[in-house]
Write a structure and sequence with these properties.
Blueprint (H helix, E strand, L loop, with lengths): L2 H5 L5 H11 L4 H7 L4 H8 L7 H10 L4 H6 L15 H10 L3 H16 L2 H14 L4
Organism: Candidatus Nitrohelix vancouverensis
Protein name: Helix-turn-helix transcriptional regulator
GO molecular function, one term: DNA binding
């Protein structure tokens, strides 16, 4: 976002969304396609007719670098930070889709429980198994 846009005090979520979108040179259609909502819904958000849904906020996190805290409050950096800059939004999307598989989620929960709460020998066994299962690591 350019300096003049940063200096303006955008009082609403809609004003902030529109200012950010324009600063990124997204057309309404481009952003609505990217975050998987209709142009009308995005227009309604930008014109303060409604607030973004949880799904829209999630998609903004997954598919853009917009800082949701800034969008909702006006405070903080406009651009969000991921914990590891090399991690892409597509990884998070794929992970969230995989966690919809109940059996896989149960296995992941067991692995995390072993890693966090069991003795070192069990953690080493788990690491050895994973290394053997995927020797390309």
């Amino acid at each position: 976002m350019n300096d003049s846009a940063k200096e303006k005090n955008f009082k609403t979520v809609g004003q902030r969304m529109k200012a950010w979108r324009k600063s990124m040179s997204f057309k309404l259609k481009d952003l609505s396609d990217k975050i998987k909502i209709s142009q009308g819904s995005l227009s309604d958000i930008e014109n303060n007719k409604c607030l973004p849904s949880a799904k829209t906020l999630t998609n903004l996190c997954l598919y853009t670098d917009l800082n949701i805290c800034w969008l909702l409050t006006g405070f903080g950096s406009i651009v969000g930070q991921t914990p590891d800059k090399s991690t892409s939004a597509s990884f998070y999307k794929e992970y969230m889709q995989l966690m919809q598989d109940k059996k896989l989620k149960e296995l992941m929960d067991r692995m995390i429980r072993i890693y966090n709460h069991e003795e070192a020998s069990k953690r080493a066994n788990l690491a050895g198994f994973l290394t053997g299962a995927d020797p390309g690591v």
